[in-house]
Amino acid sequence: MSATASRPARPETAGRAGRFARPLLIAFLLAAVVDLAGLLAGLDTVHLVAKPLLMPLLAAYAAVRGGPRLLIAALLFGWGGDVFLLADNDLAFLLGMGSFAVGHVCYLTLFGRGRARTRASLAAGIAYAVVLAVFLVLIWSDLPADLRVPVAGYSLLLTAMAWRAGVLGRYAAAGGALFLLSDALIATGIAEWPRLPAPDFWVMLTYIAAQLLLALGVLRAGRADRP
Predict the structure, then answer these.
(1) What is the pTM of this model?
(2) What's the rounded mean pLDDT across residues 12-20?
(3) Residue partners of 114: CB distance under 8 A and separation at least 6
């Protein structure tokens, strides 16, 4: 059995756990709707309450669906990043970026096992590399000097994750691309570039969709790998 598949469970155990899958997914989607509505309405308290609920609910859903530990770890490190980024200061930003970076390492490790050992698209890799290089060149001078190297290193790791996600199919590929877009929107905000109306809404919308699609892509791959 590949590492993207979970350990076989007894039928009665799997059945009991499976009953919680749909309620957990619904709870995640409701928390996402509440969070996004709060951002559109400018209700900071709603965002402070709803945002920290998102990744634990998605991780719990992945767990009861039999998702691999690396997926659950990636989602929980994403939760750590979410919580740190609620504070508006440079230290919290660096800690949050570090937590997300560990989550990307979890994803990359997961994408390098089992069925995911297939080769990632070279053309997609070249396209991602070009986009990353152009973006960094354009934004570099507008970033605070002390954040340039950390942002560049994190962006390289995130881009590698987004590229490798494609080996698990279109769901995971779309999730990786949206994750890259979400963090690019954050970076443009730090650089004080012109932004879309309600910028935090678009950051969270793309981020929530990214994590959900990555989780679904991993779970689908794990189900396909089971005998």
Answers:
(1) 0.88
(2) 64
(3) 2, 3, 4, 5, 221, 225
